[in-house]
Protein backbone atom coordinates (compact mmCIF):
# COMPACT_ATOMS: atom_id res chain seq x y z
CA UNK A 1 0.00 0.00 0.00
CA UNK A 2 1.19 3.49 -0.78
CA UNK A 3 1.48 5.38 2.49
CA UNK A 4 1.72 9.08 3.09
CA UNK A 5 5.38 9.96 3.62
CA UNK A 6 6.49 6.55 2.36
CA UNK A 7 8.88 5.61 -0.40
CA UNK A 8 6.61 6.52 -3.37
CA UNK A 9 6.08 10.06 -2.11
CA UNK A 10 9.81 10.49 -1.46
CA UNK A 11 10.70 9.26 -4.95
CA UNK A 12 8.17 11.63 -6.53
CA UNK A 13 9.57 14.56 -4.60
CA UNK A 14 13.07 13.60 -5.67
CA UNK A 15 11.99 13.61 -9.30
CA UNK A 16 10.39 17.02 -8.92
CA UNK A 17 13.59 18.41 -7.47
CA UNK A 18 15.66 17.29 -10.46
CA UNK A 19 15.93 19.28 -13.70
CA UNK A 20 15.03 17.27 -16.79
CA UNK A 21 16.98 17.62 -20.04
CA UNK A 22 15.76 20.46 -22.22
CA UNK A 23 13.71 19.65 -25.29
CA UNK A 24 12.13 21.64 -28.09
CA UNK A 25 9.03 21.92 -25.90
CA UNK A 26 10.97 23.06 -22.81
CA UNK A 27 11.13 26.81 -23.29
CA UNK A 28 12.02 27.31 -19.63
CA UNK A 29 11.90 25.36 -16.37
CA UNK A 30 8.49 24.76 -14.86
CA UNK A 31 7.71 27.49 -12.31
CA UNK A 32 7.58 26.56 -8.66
CA UNK A 33 4.20 26.36 -6.95
CA UNK A 34 3.30 29.37 -4.85
CA UNK A 35 1.29 27.20 -2.45
CA UNK A 36 1.74 23.89 -0.64
CA UNK A 37 -0.68 21.30 -2.02
CA UNK A 38 -2.33 18.95 0.49
CA UNK A 39 -0.65 15.63 1.06
CA UNK A 40 -1.94 12.60 -0.86
CA UNK A 41 -4.81 10.85 0.86
CA UNK A 42 -5.79 13.82 3.06
CA UNK A 43 -8.57 14.96 0.72
CA UNK A 44 -11.22 13.58 -1.60
CA UNK A 45 -11.46 14.02 -5.36
CA UNK A 46 -15.14 13.98 -6.26
CA UNK A 47 -16.62 12.51 -9.42
CA UNK A 48 -17.15 15.53 -11.66
CA UNK A 49 -18.58 13.78 -14.72
CA UNK A 50 -18.18 10.71 -16.88
CA UNK A 51 -15.47 11.11 -19.50
CA UNK A 52 -17.12 11.25 -22.95
CA UNK A 53 -16.55 8.65 -25.61
CA UNK A 54 -15.98 9.05 -29.35
CA UNK A 55 -13.84 7.98 -32.27
CA UNK A 56 -10.16 8.89 -32.24
CA UNK A 57 -7.18 7.99 -34.39
CA UNK A 58 -3.92 6.57 -33.11
CA UNK A 59 -0.56 7.25 -34.71
CA UNK A 60 -1.17 4.34 -37.06
CA UNK A 61 -4.28 6.09 -38.39
CA UNK A 62 -6.61 3.36 -37.19
CA UNK A 63 -9.89 4.40 -35.54
CA UNK A 64 -10.59 3.39 -31.96
CA UNK A 65 -12.90 4.39 -29.14
CA UNK A 66 -11.57 6.91 -26.65
CA UNK A 67 -13.36 5.09 -23.83
CA UNK A 68 -10.96 2.16 -24.28
CA UNK A 69 -8.14 4.57 -23.46
CA UNK A 70 -9.72 6.18 -20.38
CA UNK A 71 -10.46 2.99 -18.43
CA UNK A 72 -8.48 0.48 -16.36
CA UNK A 73 -5.70 3.00 -15.64
CA UNK A 74 -5.73 6.46 -14.10
CA UNK A 75 -5.58 8.72 -17.15
CA UNK A 76 -4.20 12.22 -17.48
CA UNK A 77 -5.76 13.67 -20.64
CA UNK A 78 -5.06 17.01 -22.27
CA UNK A 79 -6.27 18.71 -25.47
CA UNK A 80 -3.56 20.38 -27.54
CA UNK A 81 -2.80 21.52 -31.05
CA UNK A 82 0.71 21.05 -32.35
CA UNK A 83 1.17 24.61 -33.65
CA UNK A 84 0.39 26.23 -30.29
CA UNK A 85 3.17 28.52 -29.07
CA UNK A 86 1.46 30.02 -26.00
CA UNK A 87 3.90 29.22 -23.15
CA UNK A 88 0.96 28.84 -20.74
CA UNK A 89 -0.90 26.56 -23.14
CA UNK A 90 0.03 23.37 -24.97
CA UNK A 91 3.81 23.60 -24.40
CA UNK A 92 3.16 23.81 -20.65
CA UNK A 93 0.96 20.71 -20.76
CA UNK A 94 3.65 18.85 -22.71
CA UNK A 95 6.32 19.66 -20.14
CA UNK A 96 4.09 18.73 -17.20
CA UNK A 97 3.11 15.43 -18.84
CA UNK A 98 6.78 14.68 -19.51
CA UNK A 99 7.73 15.26 -15.87
CA UNK A 100 4.75 13.32 -14.52
CA UNK A 101 5.49 10.36 -16.78
CA UNK A 102 9.10 10.07 -15.65
CA UNK A 103 8.18 10.50 -11.99
CA UNK A 104 5.45 7.84 -12.14
CA UNK A 105 7.75 5.47 -14.01
CA UNK A 106 10.20 5.68 -11.09
CA UNK A 107 7.61 4.33 -8.62
CA UNK A 108 6.77 0.60 -9.02
CA UNK A 109 3.51 1.02 -7.10
CA UNK A 110 2.27 3.61 -9.61
CA UNK A 111 3.81 2.90 -12.99
CA UNK A 112 1.36 0.21 -14.10
CA UNK A 113 -1.65 2.25 -12.99
CA UNK A 114 -1.25 5.43 -15.06
CA UNK A 115 -1.42 6.48 -18.70
CA UNK A 116 -1.15 9.86 -20.43
CA UNK A 117 -3.30 10.92 -23.39
CA UNK A 118 -2.60 13.93 -25.59
CA UNK A 119 -5.51 14.60 -27.96
CA UNK A 120 -5.44 17.20 -30.72
CA UNK A 121 -8.38 19.50 -31.31
CA UNK A 122 -7.04 20.59 -34.70
CA UNK A 123 -7.76 17.54 -36.88
CA UNK A 124 -7.39 19.50 -40.13
CA UNK A 125 -3.65 19.97 -39.50
CA UNK A 126 -2.84 17.46 -36.78
CA UNK A 127 -2.87 14.25 -38.76
CA UNK A 128 -1.47 11.05 -37.23
CA UNK A 129 1.83 11.83 -38.96
CA UNK A 130 1.89 15.33 -37.45
CA UNK A 131 1.11 13.90 -34.02
CA UNK A 132 3.99 11.43 -34.40
CA UNK A 133 6.38 14.31 -35.12
CA UNK A 134 4.98 16.20 -32.14
CA UNK A 135 5.46 13.20 -29.87
CA UNK A 136 9.09 12.81 -30.90
CA UNK A 137 11.18 10.74 -28.50
CA UNK A 138 8.27 10.44 -26.05
CA UNK A 139 7.10 7.41 -28.03
CA UNK A 140 9.76 5.30 -26.35
CA UNK A 141 8.54 2.14 -24.69
CA UNK A 142 7.92 1.83 -20.99
CA UNK A 143 5.41 0.99 -18.31
CA UNK A 144 3.66 4.39 -18.46
CA UNK A 145 2.06 4.73 -21.91
CA UNK A 146 1.75 8.18 -23.46
CA UNK A 147 -0.75 8.14 -26.32
CA UNK A 148 -0.90 10.86 -28.97
CA UNK A 149 -4.30 10.96 -30.66
CA UNK A 150 -6.27 12.98 -33.16
CA UNK A 151 -9.68 12.61 -34.79
CA UNK A 152 -10.74 12.04 -38.42
CA UNK A 153 -12.49 15.43 -38.63
CA UNK A 154 -14.27 18.12 -36.63
CA UNK A 155 -17.43 16.01 -36.79
CA UNK A 156 -15.87 13.37 -34.54
CA UNK A 157 -13.98 15.93 -32.47
CA UNK A 158 -16.82 18.21 -31.37
CA UNK A 159 -18.69 15.69 -29.15
CA UNK A 160 -15.45 15.10 -27.27
CA UNK A 161 -14.67 18.80 -26.94
CA UNK A 162 -18.19 19.55 -25.77
CA UNK A 163 -18.33 16.52 -23.49
CA UNK A 164 -15.16 17.54 -21.66
CA UNK A 165 -16.11 21.23 -21.66
CA UNK A 166 -13.00 22.27 -23.58
CA UNK A 167 -13.48 25.75 -25.05
CA UNK A 168 -13.20 26.33 -28.80
CA UNK A 169 -13.60 29.84 -30.18
CA UNK A 170 -14.45 31.07 -33.67
CA UNK A 171 -13.42 34.32 -35.33
CA UNK A 172 -14.21 36.06 -38.59
CA UNK A 173 -11.38 36.52 -41.06
CA UNK A 174 -11.62 40.25 -41.73
CA UNK A 175 -10.03 39.97 -45.15
CA UNK A 176 -12.59 37.53 -46.52
CA UNK A 177 -15.46 37.59 -44.05
CA UNK A 178 -15.24 33.82 -43.70
CA UNK A 179 -15.64 32.11 -40.34
CA UNK A 180 -12.47 30.32 -39.33
CA UNK A 181 -11.66 28.23 -36.28
CA UNK A 182 -9.64 30.07 -33.66
CA UNK A 183 -8.29 27.44 -31.32
CA UNK A 184 -8.75 28.20 -27.65
CA UNK A 185 -5.75 28.95 -25.46
CA UNK A 186 -7.69 28.13 -22.29
CA UNK A 187 -5.70 25.16 -21.07
CA UNK A 188 -7.60 22.32 -19.46
CA UNK A 189 -6.20 18.95 -18.43
CA UNK A 190 -8.40 16.17 -17.05
CA UNK A 191 -7.62 13.49 -14.48
CA UNK A 192 -9.79 10.43 -15.14
CA UNK A 193 -10.07 7.50 -12.75
CA UNK A 194 -10.00 3.82 -13.71
CA UNK A 195 -13.80 3.73 -13.97
CA UNK A 196 -13.82 6.57 -16.51
CA UNK A 197 -14.91 9.46 -14.29
CA UNK A 198 -13.24 12.88 -14.42
CA UNK A 199 -11.97 13.58 -10.90
CA UNK A 200 -10.02 16.82 -11.42
CA UNK A 201 -9.73 19.53 -14.07
CA UNK A 202 -6.52 21.56 -14.10
CA UNK A 203 -6.10 25.04 -15.50
CA UNK A 204 -2.66 26.48 -16.22
CA UNK A 205 -2.57 27.92 -12.68
CA UNK A 206 -2.85 24.52 -11.00
CA UNK A 207 -1.29 22.29 -13.66
CA UNK A 208 1.96 21.36 -11.98
CA UNK A 209 3.65 17.95 -11.60
CA UNK A 210 3.39 18.05 -7.82
CA UNK A 211 -0.38 18.67 -7.76
CA UNK A 212 -1.00 16.05 -10.44
CA UNK A 213 1.16 13.44 -8.71
CA UNK A 214 -0.52 14.07 -5.36
CA UNK A 215 -3.91 13.60 -7.01
CA UNK A 216 -2.81 10.39 -8.74
CA UNK A 217 -1.54 9.00 -5.44
CA UNK A 218 -4.80 10.05 -3.77
CA UNK A 219 -6.79 8.02 -6.32
CA UNK A 220 -4.54 5.02 -5.79
CA UNK A 221 -4.99 5.28 -2.02
CA UNK A 222 -8.74 5.49 -2.55
CA UNK A 223 -8.69 2.27 -4.58
CA UNK A 224 -6.59 0.48 -1.98
CA UNK A 225 -8.99 1.51 0.80
CA UNK A 226 -12.00 -0.15 -0.84
Strand and helix layout:
Layout: H1 7-17, E1 49-50, E2 55-57, E3 63-65, E4 74-80, H2 90-105, H3 108-111, E5 114-120, H4 128-135, E6 146-149, H5 154-164, E7 169-172, E8 179-182, E9 189-192, E10 197-202, H6 209-225
Parallel strand pairs: 4-5, 5-6
Antiparallel strand pairs: 1-10, 2-3, 4-9, 7-8, 9-10
Helix pairs in contact: 1-2, 1-6, 2-6
Verbal overview:
The structure is a single chain. With 226 residues, the protein is of the alpha+beta class. The chain has a single domain (39-225), classed as Glutaredoxin (3-Layer(aba) Sandwich). The protein has helices at residues 7-17, 90-105, 108-111, 128-135, 154-164, 209-225; strands at residues 49-50, 55-57, 63-65, 74-80, 114-120, 146-149, 169-172, 179-182, 189-192, 197-202. The strands form 3 sheets. It has a 6-stranded mixed β-sheet. A two-stranded antiparallel sheet has the order 2-3. A two-stranded antiparallel ribbon has the order 7-8. The two termini are 12 Å apart. The model is unreliable at 1-7 and 10-24 (pLDDT under 50).
Compact overview of the structure:
This protein has six helices and ten strands. By secondary structure, it is an alpha+beta fold. It is globular.
Descriptive terms for the model:
10 strands; about 230 residues; two-stranded antiparallel sheet; about 30% helix; 6 helices; alpha+beta; disordered N terminus; Glutaredoxin; six-stranded mixed β-sheet
Amino acid sequence: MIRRGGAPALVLLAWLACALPATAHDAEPLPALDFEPPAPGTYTLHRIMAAPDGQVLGLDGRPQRLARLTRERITLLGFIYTTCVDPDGCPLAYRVFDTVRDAVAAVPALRDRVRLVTLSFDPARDTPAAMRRYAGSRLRGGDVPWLFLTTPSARELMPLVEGFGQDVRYEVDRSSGAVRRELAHVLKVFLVDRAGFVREIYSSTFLHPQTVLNDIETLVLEERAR
